[in-house]
Design goal:
about 425 residues, alpha+beta, Butyryl-Coa Dehydrogenase, subunit A, domain 1, Butyryl-CoA Dehydrogenase, subunit A, domain 2, Butyryl-CoA Dehydrogenase, subunit A, domain 3, 3 domains, 4-stranded mixed sheet, 4-stranded antiparallel sheet, 13 helices, binds flavin-adenine dinucleotide
Length: about 425
Amino acid sequence: MDFTIPAELTQLLAELDAFIEREIKPLEEQHPEYFDYRREYARTDFEHGGLPRPEWEALLAEARRRADAAGFYRYALPRRLGGRDGTNLGMALIREHLAAKGLGLHNDLQTESSIVGNFPTLLILDRYGTPAQQALIPAMLAGEASVAFGLTEPNHGSDASWLETTAWRDGDDWVIRGRKRFNSGMHRATHDLVFARTAGTAGKAEGITAFLVPRETPGLEVPFYWWTFNMPTDHAEVILNDVRVPKDAVVGEEGRGLELARFFVHENRIRQAASGVGAAQYCIQESVAYARQRVTFGKPLAERQAIQWPLAELQTECELVRTLVYKTAWLLDQQDHLAVSALVSMCNYRANLLACNAADRAMQVHGGLGYTRAKPFEHIYRHHRRYRITEGSEEIQLRNIAGHLFGFIGGQRG
Ligand SMILES: Cc1cc2nc3c(=O)[nH]c(=O)nc-3n(C[C@H](O)[C@H](O)[C@H](O)COP(=O)(O)OP(=O)(O)OC[C@H]3O[C@@H](n4cnc5c(N)ncnc54)[C@H](O)[C@@H]3O)c2cc1C
């Protein structure tokens, strides 16, 4: 077994570092308010639903544009889409590396915007879409179109196969009726990927169909956005009031929509796990550095075992999870994502928890300063706390692992 990181990936990380210093840091330095203690206030339009301020989103878009021009943004995409045929292992290393640098425009936590993109809905269209649906992809890459993901509902989240939104045929059209919750990104989406039951019974994965619904379709309404632990929000409540779409709005096979949802969460789960490892490493490193220079009772904090041991425990967990993330990402490059579903769940479960624990410990080691917004730990904590619920909660990751262990797998998000 050879654990050496491939030379081309080490080289890529060095190129990314140079690019960040050259093109991203100067942009960031022009707008310190988005990254220092004012970050939440500066980013959020509190008077308009708590949505991201347009200027903030424009800055993120500029960072992505520069990264695209430099050849980094599409790393994970196939060459025919302008990408570099990047691997899952490569993406894991990149996401870990970027998160380990701390807060910044290179890898914004709250908006999940990065100079090396993650494109789950784009890849769904590429893999399952019709040629007409795939025609949206260039506009998505140019930032002119975006597709939100509408699976969760008021009465069903983890148990997606129980969803209550229904769709029925009327001539050549489908008519969709229901309600979606936490439908992220609807404020700038041109389309929503809406999951609705078209056949079968509640609790069965079969019979749920995915529809690509243009945002401006009559009957599709966004009454409000949910304000969340980390602001701004873009997590919409969506009402589908007899929304009519043509039959070619179906994405993938009719009745097999949850396959798309599974593909979506697997793309996200491993990337989140890698980011969690990087964020945890950042929190540990910052804590070690602070403990070395902060003196209490006449000695540096670093000399106290009460400070050393929790950080040593975290570093141990970090190494364990990092190794599992690399192995799982590598396996994802060899096999279909469904074959490594349980490992992906293990990575996601432990890495999200690790990031939260490390941010919490960093706050403790930094004392009162750790609790302020002068330090980034509260932001890191609030962001990664989200992943312990979304993309399949901790309990759903464990349920998926148990499902493989005991030989049952239900129609859940696993
Ligand atoms: C910031 C944010 C962004 C989101 N973005 C999107 C999005 O873009 N699109 C989208 O479709 N959804 C999105 N979601 C929704 C998210 O996927 C769901 O919140 C998540 O799947 C959990 O569903 P729920 O909230 O209905 O909780 P529930 O399913 O009601 O679960 C409540 C609690 O019970 C636990 N639980 C559930 N079932 C079991 C069980 N069988 N055994 C043990 N424990 C169980 C859960 O783990 C959880 O802790 C987002 C959510 C948030 C907070």
